[in-house]
Amino acid sequence: MQMKNCQSLTELRTEIDNVDDKIVELIGLRNSYIKQAAKFKTTVEEVKAPERINEIMTRVRHKALTLGMSPNMIEELYTLMINEMVESEISEFRNSDVF
Q: What is the pTM of this model?
């Protein structure tokens, strides 16, 4: 990703707002995929998928390090996001025709 060299605080804040909008859109897209995943699973335990969560955490921590970011911060963000999305997926799973 290319960062724009801003010429004023107003311009900088506009760019930050644009990035925030994209982050929220991407989280929304991720959540849509998570809900879709429920149709491929047969149990709530499978929805919780602790092994998959560990894989994700390892991958995003590594990505954070390669970008010069705090892996702890990324892990905290992902923990919150994944916990909420797992609950959403469980709800989707329970409302599906799987039973």
A: 0.84
